[in-house]
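Let's practice the habit of predicting before peeking. Look at the sequence and jot down your guess about where helices and strands might fall. Then scroll down.
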Amino acid sequence: MSFKKEKKELIYWAGLLNQKGLVTVKSGNLSWRVDKDKILITSHNSYLGYLEEKEILLVNAEGNILKGEGELTSEQALHLSIYKKFNDTKVVLHAHSPYTTAFFCYFDKLESFSYETKFYLGDVEAIVQTTPTVTEIKPVLSALDKNNIVVLKNHGVVAIGSSFKETGSLVELLEEQAKVNLLIKSLHHKDLTQEPAVCVKGKETAAQQKKYRMLSKEHAEKLTNLVNNDKEAQELGKKYDLTCTLAVKNQETGQAMCFYYQGGRITKVDTNDNAEFVIIGKEDILKKVFNQEINPFVAQTQGKVKTKGDFSKMSRWYPVMVRTFKLWEQAPVE
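Done guessing? Here is the structure:
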């Protein structure tokens, strides 16, 4: 199979990234898993803005060239490692976004100035780079486990997804927010990299905190007490009338925990998975969500968890849910 149609689409997206200034000259590389064990990947030193079909190689999961001539991109190990770890990933995009690169040269944390950033990007990790190509791959994979986009300091960004549209949008949104951050900093001449601290009374240190078995009765009781005894959560719950049923389900074990909210107060918890809103995920992902290693909203928009119900309705409860998720930090799971 020649994958001629797929190559044309890859060329289109390579050109678009170049037009938007996200890759220039011979920087950046793209790959696309077109079959279970077949990957299209750009060759070494290819100019993405003027990419030709002959510069796209077909390789297997081990990086052996099945079709095409030329040398594989210097980032081949990164691309292949990502596909090996993330079975659902179809596209890997490595760009050299200028504003993103500039921002993370001086700052470690991007401030979210729009709801789109909070929902689709969340906290983007920046990995220190000491070599021209990515030789330390494990930290990149670890970061991508929590977010579908990661920054390589003094280098660029790597994003993964199920399509070029999904993956490219993350790179473009991050670039826009890096530009906004730099603009605001230049106007106000002050450091806005740190988000305002959310005060949680009686918060224990990580070493002192007890860890709970996820979705257990004890875990549910702890979460309920945290929400029902928190003044801010209760005030927000009443203000926005948080009244619904929300369940979290482990897709591997089938175990579920359902919260019954009435005006922000949790009145009941059981194992029902037929709730108005259901969050479904693999055990390791749900653990990261409960431990706040992954932003719950980002987990949903990036497809790390599946959902049932009209989650657009949840947007009206955004302030109270943000407070609730912050409280989850006091009930870490093991």
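How did you do? The first helix runs from residue 4 to 19.
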